[in-house]
Automatic annotation (TrEMBL):
<dbReference type="InterPro" id="IPR009097">
    <property type="entry name" value="Cyclic_Pdiesterase"/>
</dbReference>
<dbReference type="Pfam" id="PF13563">
    <property type="entry name" value="2_5_RNA_ligase2"/>
</dbReference>
<protein>
    <recommendedName>
        <fullName>2'-5' RNA ligase family protein</fullName>
    </recommendedName>
</protein>
């Protein structure tokens, strides 16, 4: 059963998103689908999805694309779970290879004792700016995040999360235009609020320097969970 705090978070996100659709108050991405240059880069620990979950997500996205073809739909290769925004993405932010290697070695020393994280993904939810899949996870992720939040500052490394998340969602689409069929789109979300996308055990995570959408990656290193 999903932790009550996580369930409440997802409910709050869904309530805001559904209200935004009903009131024509969606938040449109200011970069996607425009010529505006995007130089926001961050340092993130993330987890990738296995093929069977991506396949199930893509099946549902086809229905969304039929209704709203002009929105931005995250390619399967870009979809991920954010474990932690170690240094949140900011415009013009630069990371050297040396800085990345220092974080890599630190995180390897922390994660080597962490257990694999068990995931179950089920149900769509919508925020004012994006369509997402809800992810539930084992206590191992909570413990891992706590260890990172304690160990990184203790090692005198910057930790600059955008916010200390407890979420385990996957962003699968972003709004770039007004919805052409808002009621039908909202109905699709509501009809798939509990749809099962699958489960898996995550035994490795990737440390990356990437852009806001995870479609451009400058540096990447996989780190195994050995606990």
């Amino acid at each position: 059963m999903m932790d009550s705090k996580l369930a409440d978070l997802y409910q709050q996100i869904s309530a805001r998103g559904q209200a935004a659709i009903e009131n024509n108050a969606l938040e449109f991405d200011q970069y996607l689908g425009t010529n505006r240059a995007d130089d926001r880069w961050g340092l993130t620990l993330l987890g990738h999805l296995p093929a069977h979950i991506n396949r199930n997500i893509s099946f549902v996205l086809q229905q969304a694309k039929t209704l709203e073809p002009d929105q931005y739909y995250n390619p399967a290769v870009d979809r991920h779970v954010t474990i932690m925004d170690i240094v949140g993405a900011q415009a013009g932010q630069v990371f050297t290879r040396s800085q990345f290697s220092d974080y890599e070695h630190l995180l390897q020393s922390i994660l080597v004792d962490c257990a694999p994280v068990h995931w179950h993904f089920s149900g769509l939810m919508v925020s004012p700016g994006a369509l997402m899949v809800k992810g539930d996870y084992s206590p191992a992720l909570t413990q891992l995040r706590l260890k990172l939040r304690q160990a990184i500052p203790a090692a005198n490394f910057p930790l600059a999360e955008r916010y200390p998340t407890i979420s385990g969602h996957v962003t699968i689409a972003r709004f770039t235009h007004r919805l052409s069929h808002p009621h039908a789109f909202l109905r699709l979300i509501q009809e798939n609020q509990t749809l099962a996308f699958g489960s898996f055990a995550m035994s490795a995570m990737d440390l990356v320097v990437h852009d806001w959408y995870n479609c451009r990656i400058k540096m990447s290193q996989q780190i195994s969970l050995m606990g």
